[in-house]
């Protein structure tokens, strides 16, 4: 491989790397017709191009220029690259192909990566949708900026807004979605290696996904800790009682503030995350990514951590995680998913809601009855509990014996329609 693009790096470091490669090539290939000194690392065919690179910073243009220079070299390596092409494990690079693969004995360690999209049908707002997203609806808290509500430094000074919001959004007021129960089903079938979630709503646990199969990359409300002197651990129930009594949760030992174990801006990800990423991803047989636009790092870059042969399925309303597709058009390693190119061999996208996608998969796998049963019994249990603890709520109203999922939009027929 002549050209390696470090896609996790910023555009700036990309340009620096590429320009040193380019000047080398130019020096040896004597292709520079513009008379610019190779020592200056001039890459383009005219002096204005060269200047553009130095003054700063049009990475795409620079790369395209470079690619033109590197093309002969690349073509010479083509045979070698074809020989080095990773083994294709999917019979077809389609949802059907993924299903067949899941039914084979090659697929025993599935990693599921999830984001806010699997919880929106439970009524939990996502963060960034304009208008309805959380960040657009925080005026009443009088914040310097919306994201301050999750900023650890702001929280230390003024914790009240966070706890008001926590009360409003408290886990336990929502029911897991069919997507959550699908993950549970993978666990029951003993093929879930781990679920890495960006969500803090604990709906996976509520759906019965075992805690040891979960990595809550951005933390969880499941536990909390004193951030004062003593660091004592508190349960979700204890924090909930305090928050719902409109008290700031204060440590019973040292009076310090008790913070749910979610990761605020300015805090590092849990140790468990980095530890298990190293262990899990190299042995992943199938990666399923659901309900995330893959923009928040380091979570987003995890899709690159599986072996090059491992099939990857995205279930999302729109395509995501495609790296830099323009690079792929130029015949380069663009990073990310490749759903489109003629060289695709392992990446499949199902475009639709996560719930539709999970229903579709369950149906194709012959698991639809299993999934329906899980949803029905799970929701009955939750509704029973919340009816006992919150008599004002009427959760069972409208419940049918058909185990209606949490929204009306999840019927399999709709899923079918969405798959084409
Ligand atoms: Zn304490």
Automatic annotation (TrEMBL):
Residues 31-44 have a biased composition (Gly residues). It comes from the Eukaryota. The keyword Membrane does not apply. Residues 1-56, 378-420 are annotated as: Disordered. Keywords: Metal-binding, NAD, Transferase, Zinc. The active site is at residue 218. Its cofactor is Zn(2+). Residues 383-393 have a biased composition (Polar residues). It catalyses: N(6)-hexadecanoyl-L-lysyl-[protein] + NAD(+) + H2O = 2''-O-hexadecanoyl-ADP-D-ribose + nicotinamide + L-lysyl-[protein]; N(6)-tetradecanoyl-L-lysyl-[protein] + NAD(+) + H2O = 2''-O-tetradecanoyl-ADP-D-ribose + nicotinamide + L-lysyl-[protein]. Residues 411-420 have a biased composition (Basic and acidic residues). This is Deacetylase sirtuin-type domain-containing protein. It comes from Patiria miniata (Bat star).
């Amino acid at each position: 491989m002549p050209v390696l693009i470090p896609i996790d790096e910023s555009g700036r470091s990309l340009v620096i790397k590429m320009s040193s490669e380019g000047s080398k090539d130019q020096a040896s290939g004597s292709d520079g017709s513009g008379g610019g000194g190779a020592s200056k690392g001039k890459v383009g065919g005219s002096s204005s191009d060269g200047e553009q690179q130095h003054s700063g910073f049009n990475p795409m243009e620079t790369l395209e220029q470079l690619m033109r220079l590197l093309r002969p070299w690349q073509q010479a390596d083509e045979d070698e690259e074809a020989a080095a092409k990773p083994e294709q494990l999917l019979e077809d690079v389609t949802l059907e192909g993924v299903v067949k693969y899941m039914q084979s004995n090659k697929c025993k360690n599935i990693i599921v990566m999830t984001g806010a999209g699997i919880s929106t049908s439970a009524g939990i707002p996502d963060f960034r949708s304009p208008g309805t997203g959380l960040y657009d609806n925080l005026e009443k808290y009088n914040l310097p900026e919306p994201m301050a509500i999750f900023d650890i430094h702001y929280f230390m000074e003024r914790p009240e807004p966070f706890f008001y919001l926590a009360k409003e959004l408290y886990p336990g007021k929502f029911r897991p979605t069919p997507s959550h129960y699908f993950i549970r089903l993978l666990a029951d079938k003993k093929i879930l290696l781990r679920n890495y979630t960006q969500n803090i709503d604990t709906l996976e646990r509520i759906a019965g996904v075992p805690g040891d199969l979960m990595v809550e990359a951005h933390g969880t409300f499941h536990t909390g800790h004193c951030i004062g002197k003593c660091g004592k651990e508190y349960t979700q129930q204890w924090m909930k009682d305090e928050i719902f009594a409109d008290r700031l949760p204060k440590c019973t030992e040292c009076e310090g503030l008790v913070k749910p174990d979610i990761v605020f801006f300015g805090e590092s990800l849990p140790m468990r995350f980095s530890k298990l990423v190293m262990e899990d991803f190299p042995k992943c047989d199938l990666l399923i990514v659901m309900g995330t636009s893959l923009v928040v790092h380091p979570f987003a870059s995890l899709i690159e951590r599986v072996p090059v042969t491992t099939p990857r399925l995205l279930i999302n309303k729109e395509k995501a995680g495609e790296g830099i597709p323009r690079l792929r058009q130029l015949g380069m390693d663009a990073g990310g998913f490749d759903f489109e190119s003629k060289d695709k061999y392992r990446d499949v996208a199902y475009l639709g809601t996560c719930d539709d996608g999970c229903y579709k998969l369950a149906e194709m796998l012959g698991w639809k009855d299993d999934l329906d049963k899980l949803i029905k019994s799970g929701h009955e249990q939750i509704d029973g509990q919340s009816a006992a603890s919150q008599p004002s709520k009427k959760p069972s109203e409208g419940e049918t014996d058909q185990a209606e999922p949490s929204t009306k939009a999840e019927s399999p027929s709709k899923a079918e329609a969405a798959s084409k």
